[in-house]
Amino acid sequence: MSYGDTTILHGIDLDIHRGEIFALLGPNGAGKTTTVEILEGFRQCSAGEVRVLGADPARGDDAWRGRIGLVLQYWRDHRRWQVAELLTHFATYYPNPRDPAELLALVGLTKQAGRQVEHLSGGQRRRLDVALAIVGRPELLFLDEPTTGFDPEARRDFHDLIERLARDEGVTILLTTHDLVEAERLADRIAMLVNGRIGVQGTPTELSRRAAAQAEVRWTAADGTARTERTADPSRLVWELHQHTGGPIADLEVRRPTLEDTYLHMVHREAKRGADGAEAGAGAPEGEERAA
Ligand SMILES: Nc1ncnc2c1ncn2[C@@H]1O[C@H](COP(=O)(O)OP(=O)(O)OP(=O)(O)O)[C@@H](O)[C@H]1O
Ligand SMILES: [Mg+2]
């Protein structure tokens, strides 16, 4: 995908399977929204091949569009509509819509049903976006940073809703997020996009293990000093510590490498590669991440 001389996406290669929750992660400007908008048919890519539900999104007809639900990163229409009216109106576009009142209850907006969209809070507005996206019972759901502005409870409710849609209704979900805990919890597979390239792809567990094979064990020693040790076998270390102290280990904490470790490692590596590439006058080479 290019705009004039500027290439935004460099040969993205992605397969997302039916019923899967797939998360696209990456820093601001990485190309997540661009990718999602190409898949939704909102932007036409400058080269390559895209198939979504068997069709080229740039040529998707109304029937194709009716099988898809969207939460866009930004949109500013419908400000003066009332919440329930807008949802009821959207429901008329689809052959087998969800019940608007039930849907409002599901996203926690029953009390705001009569309120104008422009008078909703940021998080309430986002909940409405989610309701509008699923009112038509889509087979495929695109969610571009759906939980921006959600309070912790709304976030947890949203996660439950997404899991239910995927597990019970078989909805395929493509999600972008900056919340790595959210990605780890929801996604079956994750791709990390940096500077328009996919750096790594895999299950959350696979990706978490990539940054470091060793776990970090922290505890407070008998003399009161805080101790940290890295080990590939944390259970053995804890067992040894327990033998040694002959009792409980104070402030014991075992931390496995997280998705965040892999993410930060990859972003730093790509930034360095970009800087080196600029110095050498060469583009960043493609390649799979290797375990550090
Ligand atoms: N219409 C456009 N013309 C030129 N460049 C564009 C256009 N739209 C987006 N870009 C550029 O494409 C790059 C990728 O943008 P995109 O919105 O896809 O990033 P993103 O990964 O969604 O970021 P964020 O996390 O901030 O939402 C950015 O550098 C952006 O400035
Ligand atoms: Mg974006």
Structure description:
This protein is an alpha/beta fold. It folds into two domains: 2-206, Rossmann fold; 214-255. The chain is built from ten helices and eleven strands. It has helices at residues 32-40, 62-65, 83-91, 100-106, 122-134, 152-169, 180-186, 204-211, 234-245, 259-280, and strands spanning 2-3, 6-7, 21-25, 68-71, 140-144, 172-176, 189-194, 197-202, 215-220, 226-231, 250-255. A six-stranded mixed beta sheet has the order 4-5-6-3-7-8, with helices on both faces. Strands 10-9-11 form a three-stranded antiparallel beta sheet, covered by helices on one side. Strands 1-2 form a two-stranded antiparallel sheet. Strand 7 and strand 8 form a beta hairpin. Helix 8 crosses helix 10. The radius of gyration is 23 Å and the shape is globular. The two termini are 31 Å apart. The relative contact order is 0.13. Adenosine-5'-triphosphate is lined by residues 3, 8, 26, 28-34, 73. It is a peripheral membrane protein. It is found in: Cell membrane. Its main location: membrane.
